[in-house]
Amino acid sequence: MISLAGRDILHSWDKFVLTGIGLGLLIGATLTMAGVYRGMVDDAKVLLTNSGADLWVVQKDTQGPYAEASTIKDDVYRSVLGLPGVEQAANVSYLTMQVSSGDTDRRTMVVGFEPGQPGEPGYLIAGRRLLRSHYEAIADVKTGLALGERVRVRRHEYVVVGLTRRMVSSGGDPMLFIPLKDAQEAQFLKDNDAIVSDRARTAANPALNRPGVPGLVDAINASQTSNRNVNAVLVRLADGYPADSVAQEIRRWKHLQAYTRDDMEEILVAKLIATSAKQIGMFLAILTIVSAAIVAFIIYTMTLGKIREIAVLKLIGTRNRSIAGMILQQALGLGVIGFVVGKISATLWAPAFPKYVLLEPADALTAFAIVMLVCTLASTLAIRVALKVDPATAIGG
Amino acid sequence: MDKGIHIEGLSKRYGEGDTAVEALKDVNMSIAPGEVVGLVGPSGSGKTTLLKCLGAVIEPTRGRMTLGGDVIYDSKQNGWKTKDLRALRRDSIGFIFQAPYLIPFLDVTDNIALLPMLAGRPNGASRARALELLQALDVAHRARAQPSELSGGEQQRVSIARALANQPPVILADEPTAPLDSERALAVMRILNQMASQYQTAIIVVTHDEKIIPTFKRIYHIRDGRTEEEAGEGRDIF
């Protein structure tokens, strides 16, 4: 038996392909939206994995260091190191800021870390690790910085000595890793004018600049300009120690909060990007409805254009199910063309997005099933019209 | 007369009560295999209604119809003899329309072969039958062409071939020459007569085309739903 749908598609392939491309771009946008969400989730997980930590110790009653601001003293790590099961503990600081390189401003998350400790980038794709204590940096490739390029953070310039990948903040800002001391200074140190002004005020204050107490004003000035704060302590556990029980120990100190990997995933995925996820979900729902409306409209219009042929087909003995099958196959054919175009488009344009777009094969399969379902539902309107066509329409008036 | 088509006391009423319209009133017709008769009448006389009843598209109100020796409708015996009117039309009735109405996305061969295929015949045999008819109608050279590539006359010949595809005992032709000039209209009539004779098919040609009316040997005039038979001129068109 002849495939009526196939022949009709071949006969007007240009119309089909163009319509399929239009639909495909829409499906591509839908797949990309799903990919953006997956990318956000994956970025969060990779951020946690690449930090090399098993526990995140932060300020009490905060959900830092990624979701909320957290400040703890930089000697806390020593106490943490004393706990059973803690193999490594290291200070880190995080600060999202604009950094400049030449005439270009870039938004980055500046990370202060100690080399060889948790918080260090997991791997490099070019260059080397930090060897000097100051003014060297490792940048995520998404910053656009190149090896040897100089980047200005606050008052100092840093040379990019290494490049890493997939190290971005929960907001999607690529990370720039610098030595912890430099990061603390960048985060907390005042500018020179403010320091000079503070020193003058301190010197003019008789309570702080007492005669006969040499060195007091210097000590006060040193205290005002130095910084003893970090945002978190990252902890790596020895094998065989459950993260929950160590975290529980840290929480018992009362002035600290400790999160396990699962806790952090919950914060980053379920809470931090929850609103974005809902936003994307709404877009996906709207795009699905628009796609369905487009397929329904196109198939309906195409069917209306074939009313006389359908009447003739019915008159000469074609069964209703063959005619319904023809329309359904055309709708599904349109869906297949659209899906293929959409998948290719999404794959091609995903790397151009500033944020990571993760196109999961499982999502593509789900999308294909949804497209087929949508096309099936969308064809019902046209099938209803076709089944109502009276074969008598082909005869006389 | 066993074969061909026979109609006895066929009536068709639309609507009920005061608004009822009697479109056909006690129509009697008899057409032998191989015969081509004209069904002539003004607009609104009931031609199309009669054609739809004969074509098993609408159900008559009363009467009896015999096709190829089989009773297909008898109002005294529960109406249609088969529930599958679609199969009845496919296997026993050929249709030729005012415009060819070929399926635009099938080539010439498949436009014809579709009917035997719908009847369950193998694709190869169906296409062979289509080619045989195309040769008989002298359009075999356009077998792979799309309908849009054919001239009006070629399209009409292909539609005649389609009507003959399942070797039906009767063909209903609804004003098949209306859009054609005299020469082409007579050519179509020549073909219909040839095919009727060659395949022993009864052909009813609904028309009010003055150009072809003189070609019929028998004509049924239909007025206000009633038919009257008269002898035609039977002008030689060969």
Instruction: Report the mean per-residue pLDDT of chain B as an integer.
Output: 90
Largest interface: A-B, 25 and 34 residues
Strand content of chain B: 25-35%
Count of individual domains of chain B: 1
According to CATH, the fold-level topology of chain B is Rossmann fold
Query: Taking Cα atoms only, what radius of gyration of chain A do you get, to the nearest Å?
Result: 31 Å
The shape of chain A is elongated
Distance between the termini of chain B: 27 Å
Written as H for each helix and E for each strand, in order along the chain, the element string of chain A is: HHEEHEEEEEEEHHHEEHEHHHHH
Helix fraction of chain A? Answer: 40-55%
- Please compute the radius of gyration of chain B using only Cα atoms: 18 Å
**Mean pLDDT figure of chain A:** 89
H/E element sequence of chain B: EEEHEEEHEHHHEHEEE
General shape of chain B? globular
Helix content of chain B: 25-40%
Separate helix tally of chain A: 12
Oligomerization state: heterodimer
Q: Which structural category do the helix and sheet elements of chain A fall into?
A: alpha+beta
